[in-house]
Amino acid sequence: IQADPLRLKYHIQPQMGWLNDPNGLCQKDGVYHIYYQYVPFYPDLGSVLWGHVTTEDFIHYHIQEPAIYPDSEWDQNGAYSGAAFQKDGMMYLYYTGNVRHTDRDYDYITDGREQNTILMTSKDGFCFSEKQILMKNEDYPEDLSRHVRDPQVFCENGHYYMIQGARDLDAHGSVLLFESDDLIHWTYKLRFCTKEPFGFMWECPNYLKVDGQQFLIVCPQGIRSDGLDYADSDQCGWFPLRYDFTGEDYELGAFRQMDRGFDFYAPQVFQDESGRWILIGWMGRPGTEYADEPTSKNGWIHALTVPRELYVNAEGRLCQRPVKELERMRKPGVAETFENGFDLPVSACFELKLRFEKPMEEFELKLRKSVSLYCRDGVLMLDITGCGAGRTMRGVRIGGIYSLQILSDTSSLEIFVNDGIEVFTTRVYGSMTDLRVKMISKRARGQVECYPM
Ligand code: FRU
């Protein structure tokens, strides 16, 4: 596995087997803990457990022993996703214990499945308490299916709240809100949903308040594609939220996709000790026709995105940029002005930053032999058809482009457009020799920086 040339250089990836959602993200005593959904013996089945890595600087990562195993009657078919909450020096890890009954034929939607809300505590992120079961199927509202999962806990106005992703019996997605005074006993309060149904299930909810603005991030499943939007049926995006956590009235604004690429899902956000909101996503996506990854024949599959800092721009949009720490990975490169394009030799791992003098609606940026990012009439398209692995083209109508920041790793690309208003995250598989980054445009002028990493 380690010899696979597709192994990523600066992303979290499974040592072996399968990885999906990031879990339990937090910083404790200076150490960032990053847990993740992990099936080490994939493709042989096995119930998912929590893998674990730590870092102090987002550059050097330490692989730790897996943290949570599906070793109880409440989680025997998977220690599913969950999140961390910290209080008085204690980490509270809430997650979903998945149980599949096999004594009969079940549809596993309305029956045959338990989704248990489980708590484990820890003083250091390495040693854990016994498991404590907090909620079972019968504790969720009656009109819900057996899909309720992915708890996240937070504090607002001195009260504790938990959100969970859900699917109701009419196959409509929503986010359930529970309340507690002691982090152990939870009472159902209300659910956040759209006026018109929007997907059959909402997975992995995150609540966050950035610069005083509230957002709800969710992953709705079963979304019909609409032009360039919602190219995959499992989506990920955010709603602006207005809720004072007292009555039943809340407002959910318009949903916006968080990512336009092929491989982004189930992100988790947390506030670190300096108060930054940091997001890490799964660089993968469930149920796609391009899920047959070239790395899987080499014994591993999927990775996490780089950590990204969230901020709200002047229009109130939630934007993403790579955390500042990553700049320390830059090796000496070029920083120059350009006119009528540029052409730079690169290795597979690099960072490219570019700022146009004026917003541009027409240009082509070649990133590898078969990777083209081009803009025509204000529509930005990423075409990686030539790289194979089932991925073709993705795009977004954006208008003028004024900046791009691109992180290229051996087999991934993360493209931040206009200071992270839009992002394209994707795996790319293709030739890694004689690489060049080439801007083709008669009129493009600006500043370009390019650093090997
Ligand atoms: C999202 C998800 C979660 C679930 C986990 C199981 O990718 O389906 O809803 O908790 O993965 O691995």
Describe the structure.
- This protein is mainly β.
- The chain has strands at 17-28, 31-39, 49-55, 61-68, 79-87, 90-100, 113-122, 132-135, 144-156, 159-168, 173-180, 187-192, 201-210, 213-221, 237-242, 251-252, 256-257, 265-271, 277-283, 300-301, 303-304, 308-312, 318-322, 334-339, 342-345, 350-360, 363-368, 371-376, 379-383, 393-397, 401-409, 412-417, 422-427, 436-440, 445-452.
- 0% of the residues lie in helices and 53% in strands.
- The strands form 7 sheets. Strands 24-35-26-31-32-33 form a 6-stranded antiparallel beta sheet, with no helix packed on it. Strands 25-34-27-28-29-30 form a 6-stranded antiparallel beta sheet, with no helix packed on it.
- A hairpin with a 5-residue loop joins β3 (49-55) and β4 (61-68).
- It has no helices and 35 strands.
- The model has no long low-confidence stretch (mean pLDDT 96).
- It is globular, with a radius of gyration of 22 Å.
- Residues 20-21, 37, 48, 80-81, 96, 149-150, 203-204, 265-266, 286 line the site of beta-D-fructofuranose (FRU).
